[in-house]
Amino acid sequence: MCNPLIFQDILSRNQILSDPTEVAPYAQDWARDFTGNASAVLLPKSTEEVQSIVLRARQEAIALIPSGGRTGLCGGATATNKEAILSLEKMNTILSIEPTEQTVQCQAGVVTQQLHDALAEHKLSFPVSLASQGSSQIGGNVSTNAGGIHVLKYGTTRQWVLGLTIVTGEGKILHTGKKLYKDQTGYDLRALFIGAEGTLGIITELTLAVTTLPQHYTRVLCATDTLSDLLSTLRAARSKIPDLSAFEFFSEDALSLVLTHHAHKRPFPKSYPYYGLIELEKETATALEELEPVLTPLLENGTMKDAVVSQSMLQAQELLELRELVGETLSTHYQPHKNDLSVPVSQIEEFIDEANNYFQEEFPAFHPIYFGHLGDGNIHLNIPKPSKLEANEFFKLAHKADKGIFEILTRRGGSISAEHGIGLLKKDYLHYSRTEEELAYMRAIKAVFDPDNILNPGKIFDV
Ligand SMILES: Cc1cc2nc3c(=O)[nH]c(=O)nc-3n(C[C@H](O)[C@H](O)[C@H](O)COP(=O)(O)OP(=O)(O)OC[C@H]3O[C@@H](n4cnc5c(N)ncnc54)[C@H](O)[C@@H]3O)c2cc1C
């Protein structure tokens, strides 16, 4: 429990929220499995203010929850125990953009879309694209090592982080990494904070590498009767199109939910069990030269049942929305239990077959929905709450079901979290993906940077 008055000499009145109705929206992220319960929200404006908050929190044994856009899907930014939320939203300044060296410096609370828009003015891009980027923050993206749809071509957020300013849980200001592409000078401390979900330090400023903004996108939506046929399409596209920028997928179940709640038109005259979304950063005419040798044989031999190629940027955007609206539609209308899994591409078909059999036999009331980043093996498995079950009962059952799914996944060489992280949602299952030795080193690292366990306690693992 935090008494907000103890921060009164550090922050001004409008930087501390304690009215429960103002605090409530900050207490929870998009993972609906947990109920938010925070005592105050702190809104620092500078690294120095963050440092003073952390030092005071250490002194008074107050737990702090670092909070970005709260679009995280594993309870990482959720307070469940009357902790104080430390929101970065007032630290939202882009400090510099260097077109020649292709770098940007900004505060951690810059909204991802805000950064995309500012870079676009210089024909530059931070190539991490998420459906949540209108709300997520750069500090949150780095703290979750966000992936998104362009990992095939550009990798995850990690690849773009050059330097970080961090206030550690110890209360020290740490500058690690510089505006340099090359700097081999001992341990890479910066790497420890990427994907650390706010458990080691609070990221306050960043230097990112950026790249040239693509001027065109061509997207193909294709339909298949089986997952096996969709995977054959992926293999053909990857072998014949070297700079493929995305290969996404969704099932008919996912598409029909989107079409129920949005004005988008069904893309083909009839429905098919699976859809793939292929993207090239090229104009349609140039893209077609590369696409035809892939699409034509697959359409002729029946592997692919239908395909539509975007003829304009607007059409390309509409096709992408069919995929991007799946997650949001589920979260907004169906109270889902979400799973973000990583599976070796060669094992995806077997994994989904086994998962379906498992649900049918053990949890027949569950109706799994599959979508995600097929090209890099990132499968989103969502189970909407069946209308007959109460939310509490449903989430309890869904967590029980996870165990069997993670056992199948482990046998298939996968990971329990591809890009959303562990947070509260998956900490009981971390041993499926990490060894005892790894967990022991992680706890030792936590003790170095956050000796009193005041930063995001209980997230990823218990100390
Ligand atoms: C519709 C939708 C689509 C999504 N699509 C994708 C996707 O394609 N790929 C993907 O990777 N994710 C996706 N996500 C998940 C989410 O958007 C990402 O994880 C995002 O990077 C979280 O950023 P945020 O600012 O919202 O972080 P938050 O949710 O606020 O926080 C996430 C974690 O980081 C910590 N944190 C936040 N800011 C800081 C900071 N400055 N310093 C230290 N710790 C901090 C928090 O404590 C928490 O543990 C999606 C989410 C939604 C709702």
How would you characterize the overall build of this protein?
The protein has 463 residues and is an alpha+beta fold. The protein folds into four domains: 4-87, Uridine Diphospho-n-acetylenolpyruvylglucosamine Reductase, domain 2 (2-Layer Sandwich), CATH 3.30.43; 94-212, Uridine Diphospho-n-acetylenolpyruvylglucosamine Reductase, domain 3, CATH 3.30.465.10; 218-331, Alpha-Beta Plaits; 334-432, 2-Layer Sandwich (Alpha-Beta Plaits), CATH 3.30.70.2740. It is built from 13 helices and 18 strands. It has helices at 20-23, 47-60, 112-120, 138-143, 151-154, 189-193, 227-240, 252-261, 284-300, 313-333, 348-362, 391-411, 436-449; strands spanning 16-17, 38-42, 64-67, 83-87, 94-98, 103-107, 124-125, 161-168, 173-176, 201-209, 211-212, 218-224, 246-251, 274-280, 306-309, 337-342, 369-373, 378-383. The strands form four sheets. The protein has a seven-stranded antiparallel β-sheet with strand order 15-12-14-13-17-18-16, sandwiched between helices. Strands 5-6-10-8-9 form a five-stranded antiparallel β-sheet. Strands 1-2-4-3 form a four-stranded mixed β-sheet. β8 and β9 (173-176) form a beta hairpin. The radius of gyration is 22 Å and the shape is globular. The two termini are 19 Å apart. The mean pLDDT is 96. The site of flavin-adenine dinucleotide (FAD) has 39 residues, from β3, α4, β10 and α10. Flavin-adenine dinucleotide (FAD) is lined by residues 29-30, 65-73, 76-77, 88, 108, 130-132, 136-137, 139-141, 143-144, 146-148, 197-198, 202-203, 327-328, 419-420, 423, 456, 459.
